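Q: Structure tokens for this one, please.
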Amino acid sequence: MNAPQHHRCCTFRVGDACFAIPADGVVEVLRGGRPARVPLAPEAILGLLHLRGRIVPVVDPAASLGVIRELPERRTHLVISLQDDWYGLVIDEMIDVVEIPIDRIEQPTATLEGAGDAVVGVYAAPDRLVHLLDPQRMIQSLVRPRPQHLDRQGVFHGRS
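A: Here is the predicted structure, written as tokens:
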């Protein structure tokens, strides 16, 4: 059996940058909806949505991708599946599902500032530069727990 010659990817825009993730991990695209806030959640978690019996964390990928932008008023959620868990990514625009030739994907030499290791390849499409993402790495970088503060306030009533 021959190896595939193309990656089938969903392309989308966050800020002015174009990104792609494997299409087989995309569950659906939702337009609208406001997630319920979660107190003390990491900054990138915007809240939770109830979707067909599942609780779906909604995250803003802009922070982990090095993109500065205002959250869109009318939100589009790209719902992805990772190891049987679903996540909603707030994106600015869903572009298309495309076939990206494997031999045209280049290793990122200088990724977007702050994008870390989530960008695993770059494809020069005829009309834009497409950053290929590893969704697992992106989600892991977004949902890291907040650092615990070592300095405590108040009075210590124990023995020293």
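A few notes: The first strand starts at residue 6 and ends at 14. The chain has a mean pLDDT of 83.
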